[in-house]
C-alpha cells in the first residue's frame, strides 16, 4: 500500500512540475518576444539602456516563482506581458502598413495595380 501511495505522490509531483515547466516556458517566450519588440520599436538604441527593458526584467524576476502554489499575480503578470506584446507588435505592423500605403495624392493606374498585385494588360501595337 505504501508503494502505491508513493507512486501516486510521485505522479502528482511530476504533473505539478510539468505544469510549472509549461508556465515558465510560456513566460520566458513572452519575455523574449517582448524584448524583441522593444528592439524593433527603437532599433538605434541599446536595449540594455532602456528603462522599459529594465522594468520588464524586474517584473519578470519578481513574478517568477519556483514554488508549486497557484499564484494569481504571476498569471496576471503573464497576461499583462502578453497584452503589452500584442500592443507593441500591432503598433509596429500598423506603422509598416501606414508607411507603405499612406496617401500620396493621385496615383497612376499602373502604380495602383502594382500596389494590389495585379498586372495590367499590354496594348497590342
TrEMBL record:
Q: Which GO terms describe its cellular component?
A: mitochondrion
Membrane spanning stretches: none
InterPro entries recorded for this chain?
A: FMC1_homologue
Q: State the similarity comment.
A: Belongs to the FMC1 family.
| Protein name per Swiss-Prot or TrEMBL | Protein FMC1 homolog
Amino acid at each position: 500500500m505504501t508503494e502505491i501511495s508513493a507512486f501516486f505522490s510521485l505522479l502528482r509531483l511530476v504533473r505539478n512540475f510539468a505544469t510549472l515547466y509549461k508556465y515558465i516556458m510560456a513566460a520566458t517566450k513572452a519575455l523574449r518576444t517582448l524584448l524583441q519588440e522593444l528592439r524593433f520599436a527603437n532599433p538605434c538604441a541599446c536595449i540594455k539602456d532602456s528603462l522599459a527593458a529594465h522594468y520588464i526584467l524586474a517584473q519578470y524576476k519578481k513574478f517568477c516563482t519556483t514554488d508549486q502554489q497557484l499564484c494569481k499575480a504571476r498569471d496576471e503578470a503573464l497576461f499583462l506581458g502578453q497584452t503589452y506584446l500584442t500592443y507593441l507588435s500591432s503598433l509596429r505592423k500598423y506603422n509598416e502598413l501606414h508607411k507603405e500605403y499612406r496617401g500620396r495624392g493621385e496615383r497612376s493606374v499602373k502604380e495602383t495595380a502594382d500596389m494590389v498585385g495585379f498586372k495590367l494588360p499590354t496594348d497590342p501595337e
